[in-house]
């Protein structure tokens, strides 16, 4: 369905020009072996000479033939097995379930301790108590004395907490800037919650993988363990309020359908309308992905803030809430307010939408934002809401006037809601938050400690040194258990524990998923929890949060699943399989790999999550088992050139404090020799990594011999040789000192795509696996900052068997200087077959341009150094167009639903430039404006990638440019992914438009399409727990800003008594 809504925005003029140039300006005549063109035989000679030379160097220094031979020696003794994807995903689900269960148990212990501590405590309004305030600890006054609520607080850097300085014995308390540190309610709450310190420490000792544990109080303070110092922003403010966090709101309340009514009558002009807008915005902050809402503005007419959503509700996800916020600024006050009609509309929407079963199908509420009500509208309530009172009403009286306060409070009390008066912008947040306590009453009275899990998010409350970390939180509500407050349903707060998603990824058996395989997990709403294609951060000098990263739907990364079959099955917690052809991008979106994936999925018990595994067909579906002596394996594993994948789990050294100092290799040795039998290790993976250590061991001596031979590599063109195996084992050897390396980031943690990670094999390994066996893949690595054009990487895959189904057991490669590589190319291009040595054509001639490009069209060698690394179509647009027409290269259309566009402040939508991280093309540089403020906004883009056709080895052709014939030749370099392109310079074809890889933003132009897109709701699984109301609820607790007048109180009490009895 979504595909029908895409309308691509592009510049009509440039498109028309491109078509005109291709079909009119060009008269392309294909020439095969043309005598008047460039001699094909000469180019073939150059390609053959260069191919032979560069393969010889790559094979020699990598030791690829030796490694292939060593694996072949074990061909008969190993056992090749087809991977059982369903078994893998079920085992993974069990491991994840166990990890989540441990975190939930820790959280439950906090709940029990908090409720017991509160039960034993008696409120004392005069209580004086010094506590460690997170902002004030270790602060001193001008005389060098500790400030009040500060005191000396020991902090030590801790690796487990991202090297932040923490205190593992005590927690700290954070109080929002707009609240008084010594407010009696806060002091009492801080005092009794000190009992949590012991449980925090005990939890961490039981489960050393725990990170932050905390208690968010309904009074506003936040107790956090371990203790850490908080720092205000540049304005001296800490805007964090735990009650605004998703984990708090989800745990405190049940899912809800909400209609927000905003009075825009003439009396709401000026400051009142400003406060009203902020109130609505704060209400939106309290809604989450399991909630549904709409906003209606009213005066003498009913006006839906988003007209296309007339009569319905939409999910309260980040995109929809931001969309409505934009419309709030367009509200203006005039006329008179007809509240009765607005209330009627709200009740009808909630009733109709509830009957469709598409909303929360749980709690319902109307939020009324107004400066007054002249009557009580009991006729409306009697018709639509009494006696069941299933819809709660929360009036917010805007302004200092109290003339209509009685009416509005009566309405709140008569409909199980809460009345608040908001006089200033500073009052907004605290007053809005009160409705959450009312909505939580049924859950509290039921005493249901529902366990809730959030979607993936980056919590920026603490700025740790390693940058933002993706996290999910398990949270539970804390209730007052005192008998005298039972029917009041008092929520004390919410406890929570954070789980870094990196911990989930450590459970993934990467060695069983193949080179391109991966695991992923989603929430009940279809949002990604973990997935290798989820990009929550973008790079612009530093890591920052990307807007909407927390609500990336599975359909936006597995976008080839047009009908949502995979997504919907997982959302509905089914177990099953699915298969489809996919286009996976690598190298930051510049290259694409086409493959066929088989998906296996199941639910994670005890959570709202589902997990899936993707295996690519062919070598990705097979695994082999080898076995050698333990002694030999451990000996070779401890060689200095050996490293294991940092993010793979061979032994779980995090679960016990005593094991944290161990390296993976040390842990393996202790476990396999029986000295630490209680270590939790993957014996199967260890046996295979020991096998790989033995088989690859001869390369260490081979590389050392090459390095010691002074006659070899005299010009130091080859700098590094390396290998990696299917078990995450790697070996490296330097042929030059570290300080002389052209690219020092390669094979380090800085080179994210070049090393084994929790969710992917190295890029050089993945690309080599898709090459024809025995051939090398060459490329210039793209850096994440400024592009590093000083080196060339060459790698090749090692197969176990001469069979398409053979697993890829390893990959080897070298890093060489670009200058060295290019020198070999130019030397080869000076050869010819002429007996007298006088060549008819040479790349030294000014009449021709010679290029070396890879199978994705990127230039490795050209006479113009500034063009190195560019896409060939940007330099030779006419030739690239012809290659596409002839089928030598194919254009593949890709979509990115996580892109970012740079939008200029105060500009129209068309004044955006694209700055997506995954496709940062060089061509974007010229698009950026030097003046004006910019902001990064989420957008959807379509962009091309290009792939050569393997079956076409050579092609020649002519292009006519303004009556001038220009010829070219393209010739594949043997045993590689490279092509030599030779183009003559007789004609000026500069008027031809370039072929670029620039993304095009997908703009949803037509209002009808925009509207359909807003209304469209993907499948979701509703939370199982629901507590909309309770018969024992005390509805008289419905507002405290004003007292009832005598007549109103007399009118209200019989109504409440009668309705409660029903």
TrEMBL record:
<feature type="domain" description="VWFA">
    <location>
        <begin position="257"/>
        <end position="439"/>
    </location>
</feature>
<protein>
    <submittedName>
        <fullName>Calcium channel, voltage dependent, alpha2/delta subunit 3</fullName>
    </submittedName>
</protein>
<keyword id="KW-0109">Calcium transport</keyword>
<feature type="transmembrane region" description="Helical">
    <location>
        <begin position="7"/>
        <end position="29"/>
    </location>
</feature>
<feature type="coiled-coil region">
    <location>
        <begin position="89"/>
        <end position="124"/>
    </location>
</feature>
<keyword id="KW-0406">Ion transport</keyword>
<dbReference type="InterPro" id="IPR051173">
    <property type="entry name" value="Ca_channel_alpha-2/delta"/>
</dbReference>
<dbReference type="GO" id="GO:0005245">
    <property type="term" value="F:voltage-gated calcium channel activity"/>
</dbReference>
<keyword id="KW-0732">Signal</keyword>
<keyword id="KW-0325">Glycoprotein</keyword>
<dbReference type="Pfam" id="PF08399">
    <property type="entry name" value="VWA_N"/>
</dbReference>
<dbReference type="GO" id="GO:0005891">
    <property type="term" value="C:voltage-gated calcium channel complex"/>
</dbReference>
<dbReference type="GO" id="GO:0046959">
    <property type="term" value="P:habituation"/>
</dbReference>
<keyword id="KW-1015">Disulfide bond</keyword>
<dbReference type="Pfam" id="PF08473">
    <property type="entry name" value="VGCC_alpha2"/>
</dbReference>
<keyword id="KW-0812">Transmembrane</keyword>
<keyword id="KW-0472">Membrane</keyword>
<keyword id="KW-0175">Coiled coil</keyword>
<keyword id="KW-0407">Ion channel</keyword>
<dbReference type="InterPro" id="IPR036465">
    <property type="entry name" value="vWFA_dom_sf"/>
</dbReference>
<keyword id="KW-1133">Transmembrane helix</keyword>
<dbReference type="Pfam" id="PF00092">
    <property type="entry name" value="VWA"/>
</dbReference>
<dbReference type="InterPro" id="IPR002035">
    <property type="entry name" value="VWF_A"/>
</dbReference>
<keyword id="KW-0107">Calcium channel</keyword>
<dbReference type="GO" id="GO:0046872">
    <property type="term" value="F:metal ion binding"/>
</dbReference>
<dbReference type="InterPro" id="IPR013608">
    <property type="entry name" value="VWA_N"/>
</dbReference>
<comment type="similarity">
    <text>Belongs to the calcium channel subunit alpha-2/delta family.</text>
</comment>
<keyword id="KW-0851">Voltage-gated channel</keyword>
<keyword id="KW-0479">Metal-binding</keyword>
<dbReference type="InterPro" id="IPR013680">
    <property type="entry name" value="VDCC_a2/dsu"/>
</dbReference>
<keyword id="KW-0813">Transport</keyword>
<keyword id="KW-0106">Calcium</keyword>
């Amino acid at each position: 369905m979504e595909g029908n809504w895409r309308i691509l925005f592009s510049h009509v003029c440039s498109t028309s020009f491109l078509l005109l140039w291709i079909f009119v300006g060009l008269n392309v005549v294909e020439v095969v072996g043309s005598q008047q063109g460039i001699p094909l035989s000469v180019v073939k000679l150059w390609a053959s000479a260069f191919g032979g030379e560069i393969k010889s160097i790559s094979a020699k220094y990598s030791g690829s033939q030796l490694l292939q031979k060593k694996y072949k020696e074990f061909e008969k003794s190993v056992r090749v097995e087809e991977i059982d994807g369903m078994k893998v995903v079920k085992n993974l689900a069990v491991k994840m379930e166990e990890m989540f269960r441990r975190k939930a148990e820790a959280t439950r212990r906090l709940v029990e301790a908090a409720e017991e501590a509160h039960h034993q405590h008696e409120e004392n309004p005069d209580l004086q108590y010094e506590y460690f305030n997170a902002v004030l600890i270790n602060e001193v006054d001008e005389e060098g004395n500790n400030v009040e609520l500060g005191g000396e607080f020991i902090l030590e850097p801790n690796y487990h907490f991202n090297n932040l300085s923490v205190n593992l014995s005590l927690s700290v308390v954070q109080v929002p800037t707009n609240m008084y540190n010594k407010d009696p309610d806060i002091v009492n709450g801080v005092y009794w919650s000190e009992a949590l310190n012991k449980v925090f420490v005990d939890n961490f000792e039981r489960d050393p993988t725990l990170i932050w544990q905390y208690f968010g109080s309904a009074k506003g303070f936040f107790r956090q363990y371990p203790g850490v110092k908080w720092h205000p922003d540049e304005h001296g403010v800490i805007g964090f309020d735990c009650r605004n966090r998703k984990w708090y709101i989800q745990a405190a309340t049940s899912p809800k359908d909400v209609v927000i009514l905003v009075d825009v009558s003439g009396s709401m002009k000026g400051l009142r309308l400003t406060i009203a807008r902020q109130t609505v915005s704060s209400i939106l902050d309290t809604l989450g992905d399991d909630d549904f809402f709409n906003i209606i503005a009213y005066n003498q007419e009913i006006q839906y803030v988003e007209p296309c959503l007339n009569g319905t509700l939409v999910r309260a996800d980040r995109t929809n809430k931001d969309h409505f916020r934009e419309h709030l600024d367009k509200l203006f006050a005039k006329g008179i307010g007809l509240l009765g009609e607005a209330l009627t509309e709200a009740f009808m929407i909630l009733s109709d939408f509830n009957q469709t079963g598409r909303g929360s199908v749980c709690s319902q509420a109307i939020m009324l934002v107004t400066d007054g009500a002249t009557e009580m509208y009991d006729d409306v309530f009697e018709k639509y809401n009494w006696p069941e009172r299933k819809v709660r009403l929360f009036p917010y009286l805007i302004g200092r006037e109290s003339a209509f306060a009685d009416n509005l409070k009566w309405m709140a009390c008569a409909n199980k809601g809460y009345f608040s008066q908001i006089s200033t912008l500073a009052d907004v947040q605290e007053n809005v938050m009160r409705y959450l306590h009312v909505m939580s009453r049924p859950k509290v009275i039921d005493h249901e400690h529902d366990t809730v899990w959030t979607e993936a998010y980056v919590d920026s409350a603490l700025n740790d040194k390693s940058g933002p970390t993706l996290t999910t939180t398990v949270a539970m509500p804390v209730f007052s258990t005192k008998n005298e407050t039972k029917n009041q349903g008092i929520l004390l707060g919410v406890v929570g524990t954070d789980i870094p998603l990196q911990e989930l990824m450590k459970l993934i058996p990467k060695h069983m998923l193949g080179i391109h395989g991966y695991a992923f997990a989603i929430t009940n709403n279809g949002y990604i929890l973990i997935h290798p294609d989820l990009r929550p951060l973008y790079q612009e000098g530093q890591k920052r949060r990307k807007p909407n990263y927390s609500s990336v739907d599975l359909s936006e990364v597995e976008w080839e699943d047009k009908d949502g079959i995979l997504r919907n099955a997982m959302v509905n917690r089914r177990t099953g399989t699915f298969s489809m052809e996919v286009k996976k991008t690598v190298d930051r979106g510049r290259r694409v790999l086409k493959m066929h994936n088989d998906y296996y999925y199941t639910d994670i018990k005890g959570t709202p999550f589902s997990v899936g595994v993707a295996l690519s067909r062919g070598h990705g579906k097979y695994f082999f088992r080898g076995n050698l002596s333990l002694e030999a394996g451990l000996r070779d594993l401890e060689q200095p050139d050996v490293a294991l994948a940092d993010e793979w789990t061979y032994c779980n050294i995090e679960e016990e404090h005593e094991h944290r100092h161990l390296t993976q290799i040390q842990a393996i040795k202790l476990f396999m020799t029986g000295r630490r039998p209680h270590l939790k290790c993957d014996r199967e993976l260890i046996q295979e990594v020991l096998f790989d250590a033995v088989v690859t061991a001869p390369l260490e001596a081979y590389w050392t011999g090459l390095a010691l031979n002074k006659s070899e590599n005299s010009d130091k063109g080859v700098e590094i040789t390396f290998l990696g195996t299917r078990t995450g084992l790697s070996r490296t050897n330097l042929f030059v000192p570290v300080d002389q390396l052209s690219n020092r980031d390669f094979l380090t943690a800085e080179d994210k795509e070049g090393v084994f990670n929790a969710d992917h094999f190295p890029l050089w390994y993945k690309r080599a696996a898709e090459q024809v066996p025995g051939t090398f893949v060459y490329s210039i690595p793209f850096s994440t900052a400024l592009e590093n054009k000083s080196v060339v990487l060459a790698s090749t895959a090692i197969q176990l068997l001469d069979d398409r189904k053979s697993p890829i057991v390893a990959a080897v490669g070298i890093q060489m200087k670009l200058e060295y590589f290019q020198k070999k190319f130019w030397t080869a291009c000076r050869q010819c077959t002429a007996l007298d040595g006088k060549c008819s054509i040479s790349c030294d001639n000014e009449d021709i341009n010679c290029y070396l490009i890879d199978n994705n069209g990127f230039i490795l060698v050209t006479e113009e150094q500034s063009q190195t690394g560019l896409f060939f179509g940007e330099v030779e647009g006419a030739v690239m167009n012809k290659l596409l027409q002839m089928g030598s290269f194919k254009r593949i259309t890709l979509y990115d639903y996580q892109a970012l566009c740079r939008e200029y402040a105060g500009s129209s939508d068309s004044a955006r430039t694209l700055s997506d991280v995954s496709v940062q093309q060089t061509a974007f540089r010229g698009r950026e404006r030097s003046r004006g403020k910019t902001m990064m906004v989420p957008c959807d883009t379509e962009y091309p990638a290009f792939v050569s056709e393997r079956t076409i080895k050579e092609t020649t052709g002519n292009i006519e440019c303004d009556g001038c014939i220009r010829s070219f030749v393209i010739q594949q370099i043997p045993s590689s992914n490279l092509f030599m392109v030779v183009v003559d310079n007789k004609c000026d074809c500069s008027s031809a438009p370039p072929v670029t890889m620039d993304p095009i933003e997908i703009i949803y132009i037509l209002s009808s399409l925009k509207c359909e897109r807003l209304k469209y709701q993907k499948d979701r699984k509703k939370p199982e727990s629901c507590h909309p109301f309770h018969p024992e609820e005390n509805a008289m607790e419905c507002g405290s800003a004003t007292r009832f007048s005598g007549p109103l109180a007399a009118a209200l009490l019989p109504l409440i008594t009668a309705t409660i009895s029903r």
